[in-house]
Amino acid sequence: MGNVVKERGLVLEKTFVAVGKQLTQAGVGQKVLELILIGVVFLILVPFLGAHRATDFAIFCIIVLSFDLLYGYMGRLSFGHLLYVGVGAYTVGLALRYLTTNPLLAIVLGIVAACLAGMAVGAITVRIAGAAFALANLAFNRVGWFLVMSPLKDITGGENGLSIRNLSFWYVNFRNPTFRFWFVLASLLLVFLLLRVFTSSSYGVLLRSIKEDEKRVRFLGYNTQFYKWVTFVLAATVAGFGGALTALNYGYVNPNTLDVHANAGIVFACLLGGSGRLYGALLGGIIYMLITNLLPVYFQRWEFFLGVALLLIVFRFRGGIWGGLEALYSGLAARAKSGSSKEGMSR
Amino acid sequence: MIYAIMYGLTVGAVLYLISVGFSLTFGTMRVINFAHTITYTLGAYLLIASIRSLGVPFFWGGAVGVVVAALAGYCIERFVIRRLYGESLDYTFIATYAVFLIGVDIVKWLWGVFPKPVSDPLGKTVDILGFVFPTYRLLVILLAIVVFFGLELFMRKTMVGKIIVAALDNREGVRCLGIGVEKYFSLAFVLGSALAALGGVLYAPITAVHPYMGSHILLLCFAVVLTGGLGNLRGTFLASFALGMLISITGRYWPAGSEIVAFIAMAAVLLARPIEA
Lengths: 347, 277
Known about the structure:
Shape of chain B: globular
Shape of chain A: globular
CATH class of the largest domain in chain A: Mainly Alpha
Distance between the termini of chain B: 40 Å
Strand content of chain A: under 5%
Number of strands of chain B: 2
CATH topology of chain B: ABC transporter involved in vitamin B12 uptake, BtuC
Largest sheet of chain A: 2 strands, antiparallel
Helix content of chain A: over 70%
Oligomer: heterodimer
Structural class of chain A: mainly alpha
CATH architecture of chain B: Orthogonal Bundle
Strand order of the largest sheet of chain B: 1-2
């Protein structure tokens, strides 16, 4: 037992040291460049979509990023990720109604609530191997949806949803679309930076090893259940942050935020962009939102489209768009290398 | 109370019919077949369609539903699941979920989104010890028990059944004996689809038929299969009746809890016995 605790402490310590190093020393310039690039992409989107929709896109990207940590990096497919989004959103709504007038404090409360929900559900579902994990999470999502719809109807407003009061406080004014946009963009960059640092640390390597072969990682002496649980909680927490922002962005919460069938959208966005790559998640989030915004104008049967697209991805395009781009790039690089060996050498 | 038990038995019977197929595919291939819901929904809708537009009696409508749904099940197995054998199970899950989405949309397109009621085909009641029960529900329970014993006989006495049972226990071992398990999985899959459609047909007069009726039932079946044990057909039988009872009795004393009590039971079982695939 003592060994296990020591070992956990050791890896966590290593991770924190690595995170600290990453933040202070190596590759700071590159990360700043990446963040600026993402920011610029969203700023370019604003004139086309309007600030409100661009905010929506950014929030969805946060949720997809959190899902990508769980599915793309650790290889655990969850069909109940919206539960935590819903928990975050409802906590913000209820906190602003009954507890506080400060939206920032409400966001913190939403994140904590999603974290706690993730801890409780994760403790049960992480023990399930294989595809049953996905369905068990879906079951818990359904339980959450039902709780909001019926037994807790009096405080959550049931089907009608919950309008949020006290959107402005001090300089923090969530009634102003421009403020919302900048706040959400900053949150997205923060989340991206955090996940970028996490996934490139030794903890991230451990996650990818669990994805490849959990048994071997266990033979190496790691308590994989514990790390799976930590990752689950982390993903839930980030998703709760996304949910809290959703609530503040719309000014109301309704049960659709944790609709069980909407989970397919997140999975689709993640696969479309390319799972296991943070850029893929961002790209997938943006393209998915573009599709959902534009497609209904031309084509009514949304679920049919989603189903066919998912089948196509599963059968043909596993890597998604980002994977395709990477393959294209490496193919071009290889050709350039064989074309002129001198250039290849200098690389 | 007697009525609650009766209702619980009915729900348990229907749950059993749907869970068997799910349990077979989950137990043999470790594949979670989300498209199982669509064969169930399809069975119920075909029943309604054939009763309303063809004017056939309930029995033949049900037969049409079961046969067509079994064919649909075969197509799903042949063209989606078989192409993903030996790959990550997550892809199979996503693919069957995609089939579910397509199926639901087709159902919506053909028959609309609004729930459709089906009338009780028998409409008679039986008087037992002063309690009045609808005959139809008694028949449903009886049918589930017949199916259970039929499956038991099939699994124990025929060669095909024995191979499926062996594959439930150890798939690699069966393959080592030189038996092409895929063929038998396919058979088990079609059998499961037909039984799911039968469940849909039988449950239609008790509840309303709507496009998403399958997804809730599937989660309940999942709870049943996990509670009863993976690929354990007797366990599935017992667990479906136990959970059906639990749902109905909870519904009597705490109506809001009846929807979630099955999942609480599932969580308790999972805490006691994690699944290692």
